[in-house]
């Protein structure tokens, strides 16, 4: 009878420890998943244009950060179309 009681108590203790470890790992995985989804959602949000019609530059490529001089492109003549 003593063996069965010890077996039951050890089984209960091991199952409790296992459930707490599983809960800890699942919470950490769920937190990583939520953080990843938030990052993806922020990347996919459409950019808002300023109401006053101005243009804001939010990103400058790394290759342009170290350049001091920006070279212009070719000049193209255009004609204004009046309707």
Question: Can you walk through the features of this model?
Answer:
There is one protein chain. The protein has 83 residues and is mainly α. The chain has a domain of 43 residues. The protein is 57% helix and 0% strand. It contains 2 helices and no strands. The termini are far apart. The mean pLDDT is 80.
- Overall body shape: rod-shaped
Helix content, binned percent: 55-70%
SSE run: HH
Number of strands: 0
Through-space gap between termini = 101 Å
Structural class: mainly alpha
| Mean pLDDT reading | 80
Fraction of residues in β-strands: under 5%
Radius of gyration: 31 Å
Biggest pleated sheet: none
Uncertain spans, ≥5 residues at pLDDT below 50?
none
What is the number of helices? 2
How is the topology of this model organized?
Elements: H1 2-44, H2 62-65
Concise structural overview:
With 83 residues, this protein is mainly α. It is built from two helices and no strands.
Which short descriptors sum up this protein?
single chain, 83 residues, mainly alpha, 57% helix, rod-shaped
């Amino acid at each position: 009878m003593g063996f069965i009681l010890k077996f039951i108590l050890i089984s209960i203790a091991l199952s409790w420890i296992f459930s707490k470890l599983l809960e800890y790992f699942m919470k950490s995985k769920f937190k990583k998943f939520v953080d990843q989804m938030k990052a993806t959602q922020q990347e996919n949000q459409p950019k808002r244009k300023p109401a006053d019609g101005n243009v804001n530059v939010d990103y400058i490529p790394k290759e342009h950060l170290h350049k001091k001089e920006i070279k212009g492109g070719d000049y193209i003549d255009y004609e204004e179309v009046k309707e």
